[in-house]
Amino acid sequence: QVQLVESGGGLVQPGGSLRLSCAASRNFFSSYSMGWYRQPPGKEREFVATITGASGTTYADSVKGRFTISRDNAKKTMYLQMNRLKSEDTAVYYCNYIAPSKTYWGQGTQVTVSS
Q: Fewest Cβ atoms nearer than 10 Å: which of 14, 47, 88, 111?
């Protein structure tokens, strides 16, 4: 079992920045991919970004150039640096860890972009 805990969400004004963290505990292997998804109010969960064990990255078009995903395997932690935030970035953000037999999810952290 892998437990994931997100942190760093909150209320920010349009144009502002936030950094989300996703800390993993137990049975964490640095070679597996991790990612971020989000669920805006009243909508389905959507892909945001993913990072492989070798730190290869992929982004949704809606966040490309504004968000940066990274990981620190020694700390078993993944990050999402979010810059130039927009109101449409408002959502609950979830991290995941993609093991061969199962994908694990965190509990989510709320990000609200509003003036």
A: 88
Tokens 């970004």: give the residue.
Answer: 49
Per-residue pLDDT of 48-72, as tens digits, reads 999 999 999 999 999 999 999 999 9
Neighbours of 24 (CB within 10 A): 24
CA distances in angstroms from 99 to 31, 33, 34, 53, 91, listed in the order given: 9, 8, 9, 11, 25
Measuring CA to CA, which residue among 13, 2, 18 is closest to residue 79? 18
55 conformational bin, left if phi > 0, alpha if psi -120 to 50, beta if neither:
left
